[in-house]
Queue: 3 jobs
Job 1
Amino acid sequence: MRLAPPLLALLLLAGCDLLDRPPLERTYGAPYDFFVETAPGPNGEGSPAPFLSEDGVLHVTVRYTGGCAEHTFRLETELTDAVATVWLVHEDDGDTCEALLMNHLRIRLSNAVLARPRIVLAAPAGEGIVLRDLASGASP
């Protein structure tokens, strides 16, 4: 019976809700921002705010400096029961050039992310962008 208290403590710890942890500290990599062109171009085209298409693809235009090396963006996620927070990490491969570049990214979100009623795109600066909020019945 001496094993009962340690075993009971282990079982109680196993039942703790791990989602009560503080959020991860987000890192965004090299500087970038989201580019949104509100005025349409000569052919009616524009760069809309980041959005989530019906097929689960995140569409976002990023703006950054560079031009001398390849730049990549990778998607990171943080999940709770009700919210999926996603953000981009910019890897610039040490690029020190200063040309202003833009890239439209299309990233398929995982089923785990899409299963959450609320999906938020965290921004490197400023507030995040709500991509979907089924709880409120709204999807921007």
Job 2
Amino acid sequence: MALTDTAIRAAKPKAAPYKVSDSGGLHLVVNPSGSRLWRLKYRIDGREKLLSIGSYPAVSLAMARAKRDAAKTLLAQGGDPSEAKQDAKRESIETSTNTFRHLAEEYLEKMRREVRAPATLKKTEWLLSLVYGDIGNRPIREITASHVLEALRPIERRGRHETARRARSTIGTVFRYAVATTRADNDPTTALHGALTAPKVTHRAAIIDPSGLGALLRAIENCDGQPTTKAALKLMAILFPRPGELRLAEWTEFEFEKAIWTIPATRAKMRRPHHVPIPKQALAVLQGLREFTGSGTLLFPCLRSISRPISENTLNAALRRLGYSKEEATAHGFRASASTLLNECGLWTEEPALSPDQRPPCPCCGGRMVVIEVFRGVAQPRAPPATRTCSGMRAS
């Protein structure tokens, strides 16, 4: 006899669970606690199985019968209602856990395992945080190019065009990670090329004419600032590393007998060691610097603590005190000066000292040390022309 709502409400708890049958294998289990649970009994491949449908009254009699009919239809098509329910549950869990934010945090953890630079991690975390409010809680498979664009538009409207461009790129790295780990099908950011306002490119100020560079070198030589800051500016002019690579440099990285400075992979931009040949002028500066900081770890410790390097603003501030505005010269600009003047003089067009990521492969140099030996012959002649304008930095 088919159940009615009246019969269900009349079913009272007993000392042991018991069943009240409806039809087609559907029945209600009444527990001693008073809960009423819908179950469907069915057979598949000769085995009897039970499908949980829900509790009464959250699942009404009509709803339970509709779910029974849907299960019977699936059985007729060769499916198993219990397995289909488990698949749907797994998909629901995957959808709720594989959100963009979850994948982004997983990707950040991967970056930490790779010992990426703290500044890189901080910048990546910040860029991702800008879009969490719009797409952070969305399942990553459901995010489309339009969703990403909507998340970037507020950044763009504030005039932060470069930030919007970088955020799009960073979002793309998360999607590519998700694709590689089979949790996304594609990277929607590829469809956004040209959709955002292109930022106006502002190059770091640099002096790119020999006479102007000579004037800067003379100003550095004649300044009365901290000896360590003065030495750092001289080394920037001769070795032209990235400012962060120099200010974090440690004495153990320098092989004075071989005249080689090895910047470790953890601090190099491309995460691999970078070997910098040291000409005589730089060696002389380093020898002088040893008298001030050689007993410690860092070449350029800050004044307050020998365990901490000078700040990232120290060198730029020194240039300002020399009378050069931020539109005229920057610490990073020494790299542009070297690149421009080296290419113009024709001594070297592949710029091996600008680190492996900035130069094309050298067809005549098979190994790392070969490149160093080739450049050593260039670095030494190159240093005197740049330093000849400064009487205190003459080549011997």
Job 3
Amino acid sequence: MDASYGRVVNVLVKPARRAPASPPPVVRGEPASPGALWRLWRWLDLRRDLILGPIAGAVVLAFLARPGDPVRVAVLTCCMLAAGATLARRVAPQAALLPLMRRVYPLLGPAIGLTGLALVALLTGEPRAGALDVLAALLASAFLAQPWGGLFGSAAPGSQRLAFIGSPAAGARLARALDAVGSSQYVLIGRVAGQDEPLLTGTAGPEVLGRLGQLGPLVVEHEIDLLVMGADAPRLTVFAEVADSCLHLPVRLVELSVLFEEAFGHVPTAEINASWFQCLADPRARVSTGPLKRAIDVVGASLALAVPLPLLPVLILLIRRDGGPGLFTQVRIGEGGRRFRLHKLRTMRVEADASAQWASPDDPRTTRIGAVLRRTHLDELPQLINVVRGEMSLVGPRPEQPVFVDRLERMLPFYQRRHLMRPGITGWAQIRCGYAGSDIGSAWKLCHDLYYAKHRSLGVDLLILCETFATLFFEREPVMHPESVALVLCDER
């Protein structure tokens, strides 16, 4: 039976007893199993942020700190930096997918650790270090935690070398998809061909590393971290070969749909079925973050509303100069399918409210002052009232109009599942996709809303808020369009 999509495949079944067969031909110089030194190097290489970075920061701070016990300072600093790196790793996959946050992420772990160290110093008086000393430790820790070119021989922080098991066409699509997003987290080394597959020269797609019967030696030779199994791969044969030759190796086997989540930050809705939603059937996870998330929403919305409050009357007067009311109210669908009234500063002409239409970045219905408000997101300020009232959250799926929701629920499988969450002012889909603008755009945003539903946490919410805030000052980078990944892979198979 085929395994359902959206889960890592844990190979636990012992393969059926087979007649002894002659071993595959051994390539000259190919190791039969990874040596202890190779295993140690790979283990250390994937944990630079947890080991090398903290050690570097601890040495620098122990050397620069005021007179005291340098060993004690080094041990304390190393422990705090390692703790900060551990916390930062929880949001590493999401940070790598955000254009602005992935530039800041290398400093996140050291910053968390040194902040904790500063609290310890405030309470105990040790270690005594100046601002420049702490800055030097932060930079040293961040530098050695990242695989700068030529320093440790890797391409990116936490990068994984993957091999694809499947057809040449599917391998070529995966290679194009990885190139489209410029992912630094995954390096496609090549493709593993089927045991009886004819190897044709000049075939498009990744380089053929070898055949499925040589999977174990190929993993060792090419230092593969991740085996990606396509939908057209011989599943039982793959499972049997992994059980025979890879269970003792530091390699992971995943479905192609799981790689989509990790590399592209969305759930390929064309590749999943209802069984995927078992990952959301955990009431304990919802209870553990619900009250704290609500408290952050209330406090954050109240503070964000209090700061620009004197500016609101001025903005309303400027809007009224274009004619019409300053505030705009519209019915939207919220959590559980409940309707509520959403408030915004009006950015479009009054006659534009006559019928429901998709909004776009350069909407011709936008007024002059409205264009400025939308570019700076100031038109969203009244929605903070919806957040305080509990109708919305700071982070969540964007609420849509009832007429759109009715149509999209008939067109798109699983669309109603996005109403399991409270809608938000900003969210994973908003910062990744921008405006929906069409039914296809809504399907694309649904892929991201489901990803957020699976991976949501307070840390991810903080990343989304920081990315949203950064777009006020930096130009937003273009994001991937749906036809470059999900729909192309689905339609071409």
